[in-house]
């Protein structure tokens, strides 16, 4: 895409779009929640469907002229049902946070009780943080991971649930490197008469490909984003049993959204179709293999990983044991200057702050899309380590940057 038509009317935006494409081509995207969609998904997202109002659901719209919108949304739904084996699917949430909002609105009353993982332990804002609507409308208590092991403390969670008597327990996380035992959490929810929402935003693709245990058919509700490990463009999705279908659909529209972003629903349909191809399973397996290789090499360099490793697409490094005077922010900034884009992250038992935390989070979904294998990821670990050792050193940054340029050239992305 050359953005010539944008340029004809808007030089500044055309420059920014071309700049962003070059940035993605030239840097290594290691923010664990990011990926690169295909040009087919982007083309669908930029279609005329952006013009179309399609309030309602396929076959029951409030507006005319929806025959193609219906076809697109139904295909997105059918493909999602096949990918995740879900009974009922709503593909309209504008984002993962909107998907969670849909579930809360669908089955909770204001003042009901949410039990969710603490944000600094890997949870998400939309799980009831005071700055999010969920924290303002509902009562929230949070559970933690075991500070020693970095794993969810399932037994502690069961005891806490017993004492707190929540209406909903939320599982699924933003910075958790280990497989989640959804069945165990469902048992806990059942024992206290709570719903269980499994938010698989980060691992939608891993679950679809069968490389992570699936909560579909286990948890009462499953929400996800469609732009992280599944490459279907920005958006959200909700899955549930047929018995909750109306509650969920009404909570999304008209409960919390107006017309669906039909161009994005088209992107989801195309991305889900791509994920149904056999190559997607290889992609997901390679993403995990790459994260394991990255993590092992970081450990060989003496860095400390939360939970001592990973089962999924991300690693979380706690810098405190090996580099007590180095902050996650300093490493993030040094790496960004060298063309490796990841984020500083809180770690369990954080002793600094959310703005200046003690860890870094690194994911492999986007690098794997480019074609990186385990050897490449071990080399990326070496590059990360060089910067961890000397985050403010211009010579180190220049050296790492040179190698990043070569790797980026070796694995081209967008034309
Ligand atoms: C990324 C994420 C979401 C969704 O975020 P959006 O930016 O709203 O799409 C929801 N839950 C978790 C656990 C996440 O990591």
UniProtKB/TrEMBL annotation:
Residues 7-384 form the Serine hydroxymethyltransferase-like domain. It is found in: Cytoplasm. PANTHER family: SERINE HYDROXYMETHYLTRANSFERASE, SERINE HYDROXYMETHYLTRANSFERASE 1. This is Serine hydroxymethyltransferase. Homodimer. It comes from the Archaea. The gene is glyA. The record marks 227 as: Plays an important role in substrate specificity. The modification N6-(pyridoxal phosphate)lysine is found at residue 228. Keywords: Amino-acid biosynthesis, Cytoplasm, One-carbon metabolism, Pyridoxal phosphate, Transferase. It comes from Haloarcula onubensis. It catalyses: (6R)-5,10-methylene-5,6,7,8-tetrahydrofolate + glycine + H2O = (6S)-5,6,7,8-tetrahydrofolate + L-serine. Catalyzes the reversible interconversion of serine and glycine with tetrahydrofolate (THF) serving as the one-carbon carrier. Also exhibits THF-independent aldolase activity toward beta-hydroxyamino acids, producing glycine and aldehydes, via a retro-aldol mechanism. Its cofactor is pyridoxal 5'-phosphate. Belongs to the SHMT family. Pathway: Amino-acid biosynthesis; glycine biosynthesis; glycine from L-serine: step 1/1; One-carbon metabolism; tetrahydrofolate interconversion.
């Amino acid at each position: 895409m050359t953005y010539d038509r944008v340029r004809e009317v808007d030089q500044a935006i055309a420059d920014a779009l071309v700049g962003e494409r070059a940035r993605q081509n030239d840097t290594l995207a290691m923010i664990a929640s990011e990926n690169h969609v295909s040009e087919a998904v982007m083309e669908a997202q930029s279609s005329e469907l952006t013009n179309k109002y399609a309030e309602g659901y396929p076959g029951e719209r409030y507006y005319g002229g929806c025959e193609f919108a219906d076809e697109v949304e139904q295909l997105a739904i059918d493909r999602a049902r096949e990918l995740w084996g879900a009974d009922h699917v709503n593909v309209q949430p504008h984002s993962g946070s909107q998907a969670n909002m849909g579930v809360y609105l669908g089955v909770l009353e204001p003042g009901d009780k949410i039990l969710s993982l603490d944000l600094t332990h890997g949870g998400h804002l939309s799980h009831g943080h005071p700055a999010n609507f969920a924290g303002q409308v509902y009562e929230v208590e949070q559970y933690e991971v075991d500070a020693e092991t970095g794993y969810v403390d399932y037994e502690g969670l069961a005891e806490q649930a017993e004492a707190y008597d929540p209406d909903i327990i939320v599982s699924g996380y933003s910075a958790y490197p280990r497989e989640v035992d959804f069945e165990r959490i469902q048992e806990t929810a059942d024992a206290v008469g709570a719903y269980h929402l499994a938010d698989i935003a980060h691992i939608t693709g891993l679950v679809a490909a069968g490389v992570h245990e699936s909560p579909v058919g286990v948890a009462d509700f499953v929400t996800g984003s469609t732009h992280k490990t599944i490459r279907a463009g920005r958006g959200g999705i909700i899955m549930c049993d047929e018995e909750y279908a109306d509650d969920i659909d009404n909570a999304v529209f008209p409960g919390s959204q107006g017309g669906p972003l039909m161009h994005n629903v088209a992107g989801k349909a195309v991305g889900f179709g791509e994920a149904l191809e056999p190559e997607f399973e290889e992609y997901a397996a390679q993403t995990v293999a790459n994260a394991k290789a990255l993590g092992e090499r970081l450990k060989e360099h003496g860095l400390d990983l939360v939970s001592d490793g990973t089962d999924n697409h991300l690693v979380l490094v706690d810098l405190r044991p090996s580099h007590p005077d180095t902050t996650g922010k300093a490493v993030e900034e040094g790496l960004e200057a060298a063309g490796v884009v990841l984020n500083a992250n809180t770690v369990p038992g954080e002793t600094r702050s959310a703005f200046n935390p003690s860890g870094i989070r690194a994911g492999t979904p986007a690098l794997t899309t480019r074609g990186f294998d385990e050897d490449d990821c071990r080399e990326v670990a070496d590059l990360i380590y060089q910067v961890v050792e000397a985050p403010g050193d211009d010579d180190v940054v220049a050296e790492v940057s040179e190698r990043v340029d070569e790797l980026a050239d070796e694995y081209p992305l967008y034309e």
